[in-house]
Design brief:
Elements: E1 2-6, H1 10-22, E2 26-31, H2 37-40, E3 46-49, H3 55-62, E4 67-70, H4 80-96, E5 102-108, E6 114-120, H5 131-147, E7 152-158, E8 160-162, H6 168-172, E9 179-181, E10 190-192, H7 193-206, E11 210-214, H8 222-232, E12 239-241, E13 251-254, H9 257-261
Parallel strand pairs: 1-2, 1-4, 2-3, 4-5, 5-7, 6-13, 7-11, 8-10, 9-12
Helix pairs in contact: 1-7, 3-4, 4-5
Bound molecules: NADP nicotinamide-adenine-dinucleotide phosphate (NAP).
C-alpha cells in the first residue's frame, strides 16, 4: 500500500516511522524545508519539498497513493489561511482526480470555540471565536464537502498534543511559579502522540469517515494538569488570578465516545506526567 504524508512534522514523522517500519507501507513525505530532506529520507521512501498550495507538485506526490495523511501546521510567520485552507483546497482538487481511497486530516478541538466548558461531541455546533479558528472550521468543511462522493475523509479533532520530546514538563515548566490569568478551571483535553499514531492507523485500517474527537479519558482542568506537572517535577506552584480573563483559545470539555464506539482503544487513557 502507498501512503503519503503532507506535512511531516511532530505527528507526521511519528506516523511515517510507524507506517514504514511496523506496517511496511511505502511512505511518501513532504516538507517545506530543503535541509529536512535527508532526515525524512530515513523513514520515507520518497520525499518532496513543497508548499501545500503547489498544485503541480502535489499531483506528483499524490499520484498512485492509496491513503493520504494531511498534518500541516503553520511555520513561524505564515498565516493559517495559507497553511491550512489553501493546502486543503489544493489537496481536494488533486485528490478528486486521483485513485486514493482515504484521506485523514489532523484538525483540532479548538474549532469548538467557546462552549462555556460544557461537554461537546461531534454533533455539537462549532463556535469559532477568532479568524484563525474560522479558517480551521473552513478547512474541515472544504475537505468534507469537496471529497464526500470521492473517497473516505476522516477528520480527527485532536486535543493538545504531548508525548516523547514534547513532554508536559517542557510545555508547562516555564510557567512554574507564575500567576496565570483566569481560574484555571477550563477543561484541558490532551492526547498523547502514541494515541494520535494509533488512531490514524485505526482510521486507515478501518476506513473511518466523518469527524472524530481524539482526547484521552483524564478530563482534568488546566489547573489540575499544571499542579500535577509542578508536583511531579518539584517546581514552584502556579497561582491563578480570576480578576483577569483566561487566555485559553477555546473552552469545551471534549467527548471521546464516538471514536471509542468505533472500536479504538486508547493506549494512554490517563495522562503521563
Ligand atoms: N500542537 C498541538 O497541541 C495541536 C493540537 C491540536 C491539533 N494540532 C494539529 O496537529 C497537526 C500536527 O501538528 P504537529 O505538531 O505535527 O505540527 P508541526 O510539527 O509544526 O509540523 C507541521 C508540518 O507542516 C508542514 N507545513 C507547514 N506549512 C506548510 C505548507 N504551507 N504546506 C505544506 N506543509 C507545510 C511543516 O513543514 P516543515 O517540515 O518545512 O516544517 C511540518 O512538516 C497540525 O495539523 C495541527 O494543527 C496540533
Amino acid at each position: 500500500m502507498n501512503v503519503a504524508i503532507i506535512g511531516c512534522g511532530y505527528v507526521g514523522t511519528a506516523v511515517a516511522k510507524y507506517w514504514q517500519q511496523k506496517m511496511t507501507l511505502v511512505v511518501t513525505a513532504t516538507t517545506t524545508t530543503l535541509p529536512r530532506v535527508s532526515e525524512l529520507e530515513t523513514f520515507a521512501q520518497k520525499v518532496f519539498v513543497l508548499q501545500g498550495s503547489d498544485h503541480e507538485e502535489l499531483e506528483k506526490v499524490l499520484h498512485g497513493q492509496d491513503c493520504v495523511l494531511l498534518s500541516v501546521a503553520p511555520r513561524r510567520g505564515n498565516s493559517y489561511k495559507d497553511t491550512y485552507l489553501l493546502t486543503a483546497q489544493t489537496v481536494a482538487q488533486v485528490l478528486k482526480k486521483s485513485s486514493a481511497k482515504q484521506l485523514i486530516y489532523t484538525s483540532t478541538c479548538s474549532v469548538y470555540g467557546d462552549q462555556n466548558g460544557n461537554l461537546v461531541d461531534e454533533t455539537t455546533s462549532i463556535a469559532p471565536t477568532s479568524e484563525n479558528q474560522q479558517v480551521l472550521c473552513d478547512t474541515e468543511q472544504v475537505l468534507l464537502t469537496e471529497l464526500k462522493d470521492k473517497l473516505h475523509v476522516c477528520i480527527l479533532r485532536l486535543g493538545g498534543i504531548y508525548g516523547l520530546g514534547r513532554e508536559l514538563v517542557k510545555i508547562y515548566g516555564r510557567v512554574a511559579g507564575q500567576t496565570r490569568p483566569g481560574d484555571g478551571n477550563e477543561p484541558s483535553n490532551w492526547i498523547h502522540l502514541d494515541d494520535i499514531v494509533g488512531a490514524i492507523e485505526y482510521a486507515r485500517h478501518y476506513h473511518l469517515q466523518g469527524i472524530y474527537n481524539l482526547v484521552d479519558d483524564a478530563y482534568l482542568s488546566n489547573r489540575e494538569v499544571i499542579d500535577r506537572v509542578c508536583e511531579k517535577h518539584n517546581l514552584p506552584k502556579v497561582t491563578w488570578d480570576s480578576s483577569q480573563v483566561s487566555n485559553r483559545n477555546y473552552n469545551a470539555k471534549i467527548s471521546n465516545e464516538k471514536i471509542k464506539a468505533a472500536g479504538y482503544k486508547l493506549i494512554h487513557p490517563e495522562m503521563i506526567f
